[in-house]
């Protein structure tokens, strides 16, 4: 539906745009002036999207205040975004106000919504009710001057090498994020909705799985989400192939009763847990059997006391879930097969071009070995005569933001999609929902 | 002898009474709850697969996955520290005060879709009635492509050996109408966007030890979980065995 013509030229669009990639784990945000200056990763701030409360020092940390936190023990998180969608507006509003409006906001981020455009990204397949809530809060509570909401990963099409005003034609985006892993074929900046696939394995599930395994095998760590996330990021790796997975599993096996094996210290690590008195972060080092005997009281204590978490097959069995979700009973195909499921619903010509332009974004792609495993497994599924070209974004976490910022720095593109507050006041949220659903970033 | 029958009326209780009966052995209604009759099942024959899970195991797995996927712990509530921004409109206040979780919104979406699917059936019938003429046309359309194909395949293919022909490996060019139809498809619902289960011909499901994560070659006799050896079996029985949950 075209916007009403009566407002044409009456109020000029604001000069700056708040580009906000509102993730479940972190906000990626930055103010972009509407001139054609080429934005870069440095313009983007990554802010934890949570409100955390520590039972120990009885303090509450809102979003970026988390960097002041020294004691991450038993830290409890409240996250406004669930499964990638903004669900709890009470918490999200508090975080946005804290980060963008109040005196606590960072210097590069503070803005007056009445003089700012908002470009907000969302996950694909968002329930319509939640989209409506979001639109209403943006205009009625925050009163942004103008606003555009779209599926975030599609904006990666604007990350072309030359700062042109044309998106990349064909792009297959694998977004392996905190909540889940989504596969999004994008044609000229527009999402091919029928081929979007979602694999219910994301960083959150991996962290929780590691937490469960460590709690079962060693210490009760069910309250230590922050620590386990840190451990996951420090030690996990993806086995290069299924065969190598079996070999590694063999090498980390403790052996049978009466037939103990020595653990392979090239894989097994000891993670030195932080005590939050002298250190607030732990570190990993190769496994030392003497230390673990000491821990179990089989050998007298020597040296300073430290708490060790031995990590054997957890290191590679946890990220393995991305490739074999059935290992814990999730009835979904692994990532390479899921990509083929998505592509098989497309015409052959599109499928070929998509395979030649695969881009991986999202934090899980930073796990060592992820890209190699994905490429080699995908290669076996793709017909031999097809070209497979798969790459990871330079900064997989900020890449969507950068695409959005590049899009926002083209005033003519932005003018096309933005909806002004006056238009919203006149037509209401049902009209707005239809307008945003009508077209992609075009 | 007069025939006495209790007719159902508003006052009669729906709950059945109970009484002692002679134990006649195998009761098929209890199989799903507790499939312990493995010897009898073997004697009865019938299809048996190795990886069949009991209802109890399935619930345990579903609960575990839900636990792993959970975003916020409903038991722990963290209050918002400062009450700075007051809701500006009644509508905004309503949205801000929602205490619902994502599963409630997704259930809502499902329910609305189910409603929509029930409603438009008469409308679809109406459309079909209106669309008789286009349908007749579309039945006639297959002819032009049929006549067009010989031209396409005839021109380049004959001189070149099919081995070296690129034509066979190149996909047909993109149809513009098809592309536009693809781009115009509305978003799928959240539930419809999930990845399908792996293809049946793929590698079989792997089983891991419930305790240490090594291959789970042995089934726990009590609950069916997998363990790798005696040591882990003892640990499993003292902690996670479903027999006791």
TrEMBL record, chain A:
One of its GO terms (cellular component) is cytoplasm. InterPro entries: Actin, ATPase_NBD. Residues 281-306 are annotated as: Disordered. Residues 281-291 have a biased composition (Basic and acidic residues). Keywords: Cytoplasm. Pfam families: Actin (PF00022). It comes from the Eukaryota. CDD domains: ASKHA_NBD_Arp6. The keyword 4Fe-4S does not apply. Its main location: cytoplasm. Gene3D superfamilies: 3.30.420.40, Actin, Chain A, domain 2, Actin, Chain A, domain 4. It is found in: Cytoplasm. Component of the SWR1 chromatin remodeling complex. PANTHER family: ACTIN. Belongs to the actin family. ARP6 subfamily. Component of the SWR1 complex which mediates the ATP-dependent exchange of histone H2A for the H2A variant HZT1 leading to transcriptional regulation of selected genes by chromatin remodeling. Involved in chromosome stability. This is Actin-like protein ARP6. It comes from Lojkania enalia.
Automatic annotation (TrEMBL), chain B:
GO terms for cellular component: nucleus. Coiled coil: none annotated. It comes from the Eukaryota. Residues 64-74 have a biased composition (Basic and acidic residues). InterPro entries: Vps71/ZNHIT1, Znf_HIT. The keyword Oxidoreductase does not apply. Keywords: Metal-binding, Zinc, Zinc-finger. The keyword Lipid metabolism does not apply. Residues 36-89 are annotated as: Disordered. GO terms for biological process: chromatin remodeling. One of its GO terms (molecular function) is zinc ion binding. Residues 205-233 form the HIT-type domain. PANTHER family: ZINC FINGER HIT DOMAIN CONTAINING PROTEIN 1 (PTHR13093). This is HIT-type domain-containing protein.
């Amino acid at each position: 539906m075209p916007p009403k013509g009566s407002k044409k030229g009456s109020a000029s669009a604001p000069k700056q745009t708040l580009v906000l990639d509102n993730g479940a784990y972190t906000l990626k945000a930055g103010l972009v002036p509407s001139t054609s200056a080429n934005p870069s990763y440095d313009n983007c701030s990554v802010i934890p999207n949570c409100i955390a409360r520590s039972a120990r020092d009885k303090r509450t940390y809102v979003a970026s205040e988390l960097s002041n936190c020294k004691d991450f023990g038993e830290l409890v998180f409240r996250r406004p975004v669930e499964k990638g969608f903004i669900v709890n507006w009470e918490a999200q509003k508090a975080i946005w106000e804290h980060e963008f409006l109040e005196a606590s906001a960072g210097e590069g981020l503070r803005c007056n919504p009445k003089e700012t455009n908002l470009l907000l990204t969302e996950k694909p397949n968002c329930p319509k009710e939640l989209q409506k809530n979001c639109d209403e809060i943006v205009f009625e509570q925050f009163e942004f001057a103008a606003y555009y909401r779209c599926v975030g990963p599609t904006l990666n099409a604007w990350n072309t090498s030359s700062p042109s005003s044309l998106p990349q034609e064909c792009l297959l985006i694998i977004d392996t994020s905190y909540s889940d892993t989504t596969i999004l074929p994008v044609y000229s900046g527009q999402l091919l909705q029928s081929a979007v696939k979602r694999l219910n394995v994301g960083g959150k599930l991996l962290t929780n799985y590691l937490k469960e395994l460590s709690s079962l095998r060693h210490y009760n760590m069910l309250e230590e989400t922050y620590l386990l996330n840190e451990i996951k990021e420090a030690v996990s790796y993806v086995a290069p192939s299924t065969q190598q997975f079996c070999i590694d599993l063999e090498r980390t096996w403790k052996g049978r009763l009466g037939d103990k094996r020595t653990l392979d210290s090239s894989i097994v690590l000891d993670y030195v847990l932080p005590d939050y008195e002298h250190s607030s972060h732990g570190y990993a080092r190769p496994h030392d059997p003497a230390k673990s005997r000491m821990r179990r009281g089989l050998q007298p204590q020597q040296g300073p006391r430290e708490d060790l978490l031995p990590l054997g097959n957890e290191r590679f069995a946890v990220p393995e879930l991305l490739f074999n979700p059935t290992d814990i009973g999730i009835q979904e195909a692994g990532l390479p097969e899921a990509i083929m499921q998505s592509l098989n619903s497309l015409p052959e010509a599109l499928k070929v071009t998509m395979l030649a332009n695969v881009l991986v974004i999202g934090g899980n792609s930073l796990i060592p070995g992820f890209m190699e495993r994905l490429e080699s497994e995908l290669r076996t599924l793709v017909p031999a005569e097809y070209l497979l070209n798969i790459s990871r974004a330079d900064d997989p976490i900020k890449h969507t933001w950068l695409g959005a910022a590049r899009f926002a720095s083209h005033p003519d593109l932005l003018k096309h999609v933005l909806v002004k507050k006056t238009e919203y006041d006149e037509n209401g949220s049902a009209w707005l929902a239809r307008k945003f659903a009508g077209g992609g970033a075009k | 002898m007069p025939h006495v029958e209790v007719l159902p009326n508003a006052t009669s209780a729906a709950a059945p009474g109970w009484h002692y009966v002679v134990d006649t052995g195998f009761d098929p209604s209890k199989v799903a709850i507790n499939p312990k009759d493995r010897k009898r099942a073997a004697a009865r024959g019938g299809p048996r697969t190795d990886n069949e899970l009991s209802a109890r195991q399935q619930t345990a797995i579903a609960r575990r996955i839900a636990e792993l996927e959970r975003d916020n712990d409903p038991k722990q509530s963290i209050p918002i520290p400062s009450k700075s921004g007051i809701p500006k409109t009644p509508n905004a206040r309503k949205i801000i005060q929602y205490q619902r979780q994502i599963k409630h919104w997704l259930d809502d979406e499902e329910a609305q879709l189910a409603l929509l699917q029930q409603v438009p059936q008469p409308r679809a019938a109406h459309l079909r009635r209106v669309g008789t003429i286009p349908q007749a046309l579309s039945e006639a359309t297959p002819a032009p492509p049929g006549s067009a194909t010989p031209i396409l395949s005839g021109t380049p293919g004959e001189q070149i050996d099919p081995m070296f022909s690129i034509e066979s490996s190149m996909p047909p060019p993109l149809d513009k109408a098809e592309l536009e139809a693809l781009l115009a498809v509305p978003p799928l619902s959240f539930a419809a966007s999930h990845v399908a289960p792996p293809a049946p011909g793929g590698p079989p499901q792997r089983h891991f030890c419930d305790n240490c994560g090594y291959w789970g070659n042995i089934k726990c006799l009590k609950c069916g979980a997998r363990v790798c050896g005696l040591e882990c079996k003892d640990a499993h029985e003292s902690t996670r065995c479903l027999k006791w949950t």
